[in-house]
Amino acid sequence: MKLINWDGVDWRRVEFRVSRLQNRIYSASLKGDSGLVLFLQRILIKSLDSKLLAVRRVTTENKGKNTPGVDLRTYVSSREKAQLVSSLKVDGRFAPIRRILIPKPGRTEKRPLGIPVIRDRAKQALVLMALEPQWESRFEPNSYGFRPGRSPHDAVEAVFLSIKVSDHSSREKFVVDADLKGCFDNIDHQYLISKLDTLPIIRNQVKAWLRAGFFEGLHLPSNLYGEVPENPLGTPQGGVISPFLCNVALHGMEQHLKDWIIHQDWPYSQRHQSFTTNKVKSISLIRFADDFVIIHSDKGIALAAKDELSLWLKATSNLSFNEAKTSVRSSREGFNFLGFSFITIKRSNSYRTKIYPSKENFKQLIKKVGDSCRRYRSISSYDLIGVLRPIILGWANYFRYCECKYTFSVASRIIFQILRSWAFRRDRRHGRFSVKEKYFPSGKSYTYEGRAYSDNWILFGQKRSKGGLVEERFLPRISWVSSLKYVKVRGNSSVYDGHHFYWVQRLSKYSRFDRRTRKLLKIQAGRCPLCNGYFGHSSVIEVDHIIPLSKGGKDVYSNLQLVHRHCHILKTKQDLIG
Questions:
Q1: Which molecular function term from Gene Ontology is one that the record holds (predicted)?
Q2: pLDDT value at position 59?
Q3: What phi and psi, each to the nearest 5 degrees, are found at residue 272?
């Protein structure tokens, strides 16, 4: 069989054809035409275009592209990727999953992570392309986790709108902060497979992945795959399709809760109280993957809703609440969700709901900066800035969509103290003034997010490149990151609904990209100049120098462009040849 020329693939046309098929699946599912959905899914999983995209995702774009499974095989060269495309097929086969333990953020215990072989990852990406648009038309409006075009900030804004007090009669709401016990590890396989509502060949393939056993070692020969015990429950964390399967298993929670509360017999003694009864029936459930909250103005109803959901979970996916981590709190007391702290406060006889970065996340940031400075005692300030800048600004860009000014100011002061100690500990032979001027030069001005700052205590570093040019870096203060207002995604909107302008606009405005990337997105109107294709929410985007720095190019906007990662790789090869 003749292999496809991987380096000569017209990715714009490939993405267009796959996107067109996915949009048709979404539209057919929205109309309830199950026959057309199955017909289009069969076309998609057999399409060369979708196989090319699936292989590109796991061998070029994914961060784990160089992490092999039990077969110790990776696909690096263009020929190897082309061979994988030619042999890729949804056939019900699978390999055991290599399992490792990784630390949980901010916790001492570790959680298991499954690493499938790259061939299985590519098949999972292929199946996900067929299933995701079908289920995007079904998923509930307040489900936000691991869905294209939706982010934690959408869930946070939904919680804010739900607990926001608009009248004086409802001064507080009660929140059930729920935690499921081992969600990924305990999902019932039979329930999940029966719920998929797709082609038999896809159901058999998903069933095979769910049954795949775990191998604790590094390498396992293929002739021993059958000796690994099968997995009876759950979906392994780490697979491409695992978060989607979790969403499918938990789909229906919100609708079930609303049906339950509507059909309760809420008594009232007077006719005018019927309006109050309707308000009693109003309940909110906001879910981000397996993390969700139930919100209601009556504590008893909130607890009853939690018990009802417990019965529903047991009867469907065989999941249960982790009672030790599930709590009921008043919005006046405050609660945490997705790293944010929510609280309703009274000010001037009115009530307001406020959102702040949680204390736990604040402590994690300070610890991470401190640990990095202790670990990299001997590197240059230029390299230390390269380590710290993504940590600090990534944290700030996540929490900027809340009332963060005071928290950022405190964090800026503490981080400065850590950096000052790092600098003065390095050089004890020279005077403190000379050390200060070396690492924190006076009289310099810095530009960040279009604003100029004059500060004599900003960590600064220089490095001479191979071409003899002197490159400079500085570490912005976290307090320079301004607070912004976030607008929640519209209702049941989906990236497959064909409203491309709306999604490109959200990508450039509300993504976690830095200012430079967002500005380039706006300048380029959401298109990659190399392939002329649009950037989507699943696209891996990189900043490219039109004239490479090694050839005298400058790091200025006129010499910068945003490109797809796969386009960037091809351009870099051509630059090296030229």
A1: zinc ion binding
A2: 93
A3: -65, -15
Mean pLDDT to the nearest integer, 451-467:
87
Residue 24 falls inside a structural domain: no
Whose CA is closest to 130, among 11, 28, 279, 256? 28
What is the spatial distance between Cα 82 and Cα 293, in angstroms, rounded to a whole number? 45
Half-sphere exposure of 153 (CA within 13 A, CB side): 19
Structure tokens at 293: 């909250």
pLDDT band at 327 (very low <50, low <70, confident <90, very high): confident
Task: Could you list the beta-strand ranges (E) of 395-485.
Answer: 445-448, 451-454, 460-464, 470-474
Quote the crossing angle between the two packed helices 381-399 and 359-375, to the nearest 10°: 170
Cα–Cα distance, 499 to 116 (Å, whole number): 35
- At residue 1 the predicted structure's pLDDT band, cuts being 50, 70 and 90, is low
Q: Which stretches of 137-211 are DSSP H helices?
A: 152-163, 183-186, 189-195, 200-211
Asked if residue 343 is part of any domain, the answer here is no
Task: Yes or no: say if 53 and 162 are a contact pair by the CB < 8 Å rule.
Answer: no
Q: What letter does residue 488 receive in the DSSP assignment? A: P
- From first CA to last CA, the distance across the chain in angstroms is 33
In whole angstroms, what is the distance from residue 543 CA to residue 561 CA? 6
- Which residues, other chains included, contact 277 with Cβ-Cβ below 8 Å and sequence gap of 6+? 266, 268
With contact defined as beta carbons under 8 Å apart, do 65 and 122 qualify?
no
Domain of 374? 359-480
172-209 burial code (b ≥16 CB/10 A, e <16): bbbbbbbebbebbeebbbeebbebbebbebbbebbbbb
User: Is 505 inside a domain boundary?
Assistant: yes
Say which residue the tokens 């082309």 belong to: 82
pLDDT at 551: 79
Residue 387 CA to residue 215 CA, distance in Å, equals 34
Residue 396 identity: A
Residue 94: predicted pLDDT: 87
Q: Are residues 393 and 465 in the same domain?
A: yes
Average pLDDT for 129-147 = 93
- Residue 541's domain is classified under what CATH number? 1.10.30
Residue 269 pLDDT greater than 80, yes or no: no
Rounded to 10 degrees, what is the CA torsion of 401, 406, 409, 410?
-120
User: What is the model's pLDDT at position 449?
Assistant: 84
pLDDT at 496 over 70: yes
Return d(Cα 126, Cα 115) in angstroms, integer. Answer: 17
Q: Cα 510–514–516 angle (5° rounding)?
A: 110
- SS3 percent helix, strand, coil of the chain, rounded to 5, is 50, 15, 35
- CA distances 142 to 168, 195, 254, 338, 355, Å, are 26, 20, 8, 15, 19
> Is residue 83 exposed (0-12), middle (13-18) or buried (19+ Cβ within 10 Å)?
middle
In a domain, 62, yes or no: no
pLDDT-based confidence at 355, cuts 50/70/90?
very high
